[in-house]
Amino acid sequence: MWGRGRRQAKGAAARINAERAEAALMEAYPQLVRIAFVALPPALGRHRRVLVAHGLVQRALPGPLGAALPGGDGPPGDTAGPGPKPEYAWVRERVLTACLAYGARPRRWPRRLPWPRALRPALPAVWGLRLFPRAGSGDTTSLDRALAAASAPARALFALCSLEDMPKEAARELLTRLGTPPDAAARRDAEQLLYLSARAAADLGNASEFDPCSVQTRPTDLLRRRRRRRLAGLTAALLALVTISVLPATSGDGFGGTPSAGDAISADLAPVMDTGRLVRAPGDRWADTSRVDFTAWAPRGARVDDTELLHRALAAWAHPAPGTEVTSAAATTEELPATPPALLYAGDIDGRAVVVLHDERRIVRYTEPSDGDGTAALDFARADDADVTTAAAVVVSRTARQVRFLTAPWIATAERRDLRRPDTPARSVRVARDGVTEPVARPKYGDCNARPALQLKSSARIVEHHTFVVADLGDLLPAHLTYMPLPDRERPRPPREATSTEALRAWAASACGMSGLRGGGVRSVSVWDFARQRLPEDGGHAVWSCRRADTWRGPGDIEVGLRRPEAAPDADATVVARDRDTAACSRFGQHVVASTRWRSPSKKWYLLAAGSRAVTGLEVTGDVRATTEEPTLARRAPKDARTQVTADFPEGEQLRSPGSE
Fold first, then answer.
1. Between vectors from CA 163 to CA 159 and to CA 169, what angle results, nearest 5°?
2. What's the CA gap between 155 and 140, in Å, rounded?
């Protein structure tokens, strides 16, 4: 059939045999459902997204079996080539088209009105149970959070490249043929998703978190279901009674009832999840305690006394209603607190009601549409051992282009700063009386022209002249940025805030790589300049630095770079080594050594190596051999030479470079 279709006259549509298409669908059903699950909007929630993915795949075959189905504008594949069979490619295009269209409004439908649920596919449907893909690792959770922030074309492009191993250019051509060409932003988002997937070593074809065919089940709220059954029975009885008593006078309005949000909280949870027992710190606690963290936040916002809103927030925590979007930062649990949580904020921001709670270990943010039209969301993030800087702000609203922060009560002023422009002064940010900032620009991941950050200053009531910088990395809590300068006369220098000219210039060369930290549960990021080296052939100087990202769960990732101080302020450092889940470049891993290739002005290649302050010597083995009793080394070496660099320490210990071959 496909061969005959290819011999049709020019301009005629290709034809696909329906029976073969059904066979291809059944054979590749798990793969097609996984593609749909990744491409669908994560805002649907895990339960609904599982059902919609199955539904879209099951409805990919229109018309009666045995009929000839129209193909696309051109052949979707070639059975003689290395690509997929034409029937499978055709079904895949149908599934992708449905995923890209899902959530869009019908033509001429009023923009202010959402797509009516009646026009969306309803089957398959599950009553009495909620379906969840199996939990994945913290890294795959970060990938799922990044998917939630990406556009539909970006998710589809990512699904094709990661699940189908399709070349990027071919995937873009396919989406263009389907009528949704990915723009530059979608391509950047897809690149970021592919980077996060590789960083997490996540094979989406085997990752349980993205497998809608292998799910866990949980009951819906049993207490609410029992209440609804009782109300339904009572309603039926009353309707029958009214019908008998007033027939045929009027039909009446009937009787119905909707359980309150409090009904979602069972009796054994009521003492903990009771709005009356929410902890409310005094307004000036932060200025009268040695523990300046989230426990010192007083509740703020115009709706801190809105019992119904607080009730719904606690009920959503206890038993999220179907459709509620629940997300958790890496290594963050969603379990209920052991004691009543503290109320930090309740108010309306950007058209949504926002409630922020704290239970000693986590920050929990509940949001719902202020007008009641839309879905609620519940977000969890770790906040254990927070301090005056890491408890200084919470993200309360985030869109594709901007973010609002809720600042701590001890924050006196806020300013915006671009890390890529260290010589540009910071600009003031307006902060409302309840602590919410005006919208601040978000970094455009994939575009390193700007890296916005928030510069905060603490009140003089707790510390004088304390200014620090935080950056939004996609989580509830922004990351605290610090800097440690080069050793001074062989003595270490303590970490300091990233506010000085020296610190800002160091950060300008490292800020571009922060896109890879998005959604990773990062608590703080530091840049440590550990060595300065004179380059051969009067090539000037270079500074070796280590950028470390510490997570709330403990482990950290490092990136070792080499930069030229005399270069332009926004010139990127050359990344020479990376390592994950390591203590290197921290207080518990104070030694580091690295190496790289460098080309001199005379076009000659050199091996450069450097170690931190305590290094007493370096040794190079492999294709090039060299030793020195200094912490830096430069030797002529071919560009492709295989080498291993080892550092010596006074105690006789040795350390190898993570960048050596």
1. 65
2. 15
